[in-house]
Fold this sequence. Notes:
The protein contains 11 helices and 13 strands. By secondary structure, the chain is of the alpha/beta class. It has a 5-stranded mixed β-sheet with strand order 1-7-6-4-5, with helices on both faces. The chain has a 4-stranded mixed β-sheet with strand order 8-13-12-11, sandwiched between helices. A hairpin with a 3-residue loop joins strand 12 and strand 13. The longest helix is centred in the last third of the chain and has 22 residues, at 222-243.
Amino acid sequence: MPTKTRAAITGVxxxxxxxxxxxxxxxxxxxxxxxxxxxxxxxxxxxxxxxxGWATSDMCAEAMKGLLExxxxxPGEIDMVIVATVxxxxxxxDTANTVCDKVGAKNAFGYDINAxxxxxxxxxxxxxxxxxxxxxxxxxxxxxxxxxxxVDYTERNTCVIFGDGAGAVLLEGRxxxxxxxDFVLRxxxxxxxxxxxxxxxxxxxxSHETIDNREHxxxxxxxxxxxxxxxxxxxxxQEVMRRNKLTADDIAWVVxxxxxxxxINSVAEHLGFPMERITVNIEKYGNTTAATxxxxxxxxxxxxxxxxxxxxxxxxxxxxxxxxxxxxxx
Length: 330
């Protein structure tokens, strides 16, 4: 019986806003149509947060409240909260501490991780270290983005892709071999010009000029992102499998970032995995950035079996990318 403490996911919960933005809605906003969007992205609709006064922290709070209720854990029992997001409520303070306040996690501390679409993966690997080292016993990792706040709804190539949502997991120590087994995380800062938001940081602070130039929206060079995303996700997944002496037959599920359906299909094809073992929900939610991986875990939870080998893989702006191997714990 293994004795090493591993960080196991012992619960997962997702939350998406009730308001839907369909392809037919977008037809009225930009020059596009349902067939064009589906053929290029696989997306039929996405959720957008329209509740007055709500922001990313509120979606995080709803996901965390659902997670705690589901697992029977009281807010005061949580030691740490990590939020992966690129759409924090404010530049500071961090969203994680705001979430702790909103859910009543009075004994927890937290911070945010900004790694774009790889954010949840990076945050999960980070949170796992605190549990494996037995520094903390209950860590909540949340991926959430309100992409509608930084999407230009006059730019058809971008606005059709993104949606809003949040997903949360509870990490606890297990000694039965289940939990996070390995991960490979990578970064290449030279990709920052290909996928980014130009203004709003210290390089180009907000000004009349940046607003007039529409520089406060997400920008990407789609073709270059596609090429790097497929190469990065495939490469790190293969590396994780090689390091752990696993073949495709040993992997029960691959959970890829929901960037667009063509990327997901290409990753599956290069890895030799049948689509029946690839989690997909992009048609309903679009690309929710840091929320895609936990939302997939939430939706497919009932299909996972204890001991299943699952690989999570993602690619995001920066560039950031990686893959993580875990054994499902329940």
